[in-house]
TrEMBL record:
Protein family: Belongs to the cytidylyltransferase family.
Keyword tags: Lipid biosynthesis, Lipid metabolism, Membrane, Nucleotidyltransferase, Phospholipid biosynthesis, Phospholipid metabolism, Transferase, Transmembrane, Transmembrane helix
Classification lineage: Eukaryota, Viridiplantae, Streptophyta, Embryophyta, Tracheophyta
Pathways per UniProt: Phospholipid metabolism; phosphatidylethanolamine biosynthesis; phosphatidylethanolamine from ethanolamine: step 2/3; Lipid metabolism
Domain of life: Eukaryota
Single annotated GO MF: ethanolamine-phosphate cytidylyltransferase activity
Polar residues: bias regions: 194-203
Residues covered by the Cytidyltransferase-like domain: 48-177, 247-377
A matching Pfam family: CTP_transf_like
EC top class, as a word: transferase
Name of the protein in question: Ethanolamine-phosphate cytidylyltransferase
Species assigned in the record: Olea europaea subsp. europaea
E.C. numbers: 2.7.7.14
Keyword Lipid metabolism: yes
Amino acid sequence: MSSETENSEQSSRVLAKWLIGGLVIGASVMGFQIFQQKKKKKRPIRVYMDGCFDMMHYGHCNALRQARALGDQLVVGVVSDAEIIANKGPPVTPLNERMIMVSAVKWVDEVISDAPYAITENFMRKLFDEYNIDYIIHGDDPCILPDGSDAYALAKKVGRYKQIKRTEGVSSTDIVGRMLLCVRERSTGDSHNHSSLQRQFSHGHSPKSEAGGSGSETRISHFLPTSRRIVQFSNGKGPGPDARVVYMDGAFDLFHAGHVEILRLARGLGDFLLVGIHTDQTVSSKRGAHRPIMNLHERSLSVLACRYVDEVIIGAPLGVSKDTITTFNISLVVHGTVAEDNDFQKERDNPYAVPISMGIFELLESPLDITTSTIIRRIVSNHEAFQKRNEKKGESERRYYEDKAFVSGD
């Protein structure tokens, strides 16, 4: 064999070894990357947030949205009635209703019932070991126990605590205060005309509440609606070309478990649920100058946070017109049997006359006998207890706003 041929064969063997070695290394690297990806997928980051979620509103929902953004799965603990009574005073909504509300928030993956008000050593171990929680989340407002200690001190101590930004302009204390103010105005005859009340609710005036003779300040809405917040709450997707669009409208004031359950039924009748939120002026004309308790943008965000809702019309007209049906390609218009405006069939200007004439209207049997007036009656019936609770909470909120510092990310 010539030296030239021998050198050629030797070069071929070296090249083959090099190629095989490269393939082996490449396969090893690729295998390691796949293993790492599988490892990441196998162990999602799980975060935990707890709360009373009494008189649940868009502020609660925004907190849950922020918490969910810090992990892959959000587990939420709902504090028991007994724990709320011991630490804050009587809850407005019982545990079963609060569970319905929290479970319906679209950023929530799992719910724990009867969670403790404070993170104890035993419960924290349970979260880490049984629920595989990586981080415990709370807002930047302090949660102080009756003995003056921090409810999240243990989580902070072990380095498993993360903080989110509290939503400006709303709290359960604030909403209860609005209702107490309305009760006071009705009972004293200090009625505001329609436009005056709406200005208060829209611009955050702070009239003095004389309910219970305390003279404590009751704050009206300080919410500053932004397009960014609406985008954050929106699904950002429209219905498909062949989707069955279901439409339901209403005030949806003080968004409650009754609203959630009827929306769940409505969503089950189609592929896309569009909800019309009536203007403050429309609600006032139907239910009196002291309503709605929550303004249009506050009500819209609460509904948008519900997992059964795909889109909302902010400021929907009272009557469902042919143009509305055509514009949104609505296949079915529904209304619940339990509602405060259920005498529409007797009205000369029936808001559902058009969908009824088209054969696309359906009256749904409401699963729960709860209305906004039900919630207000609960406040009125236990007026003194809620007034005392508000005075106590109002002072802690005042301190929070005085000491408040900027927290990035919301």
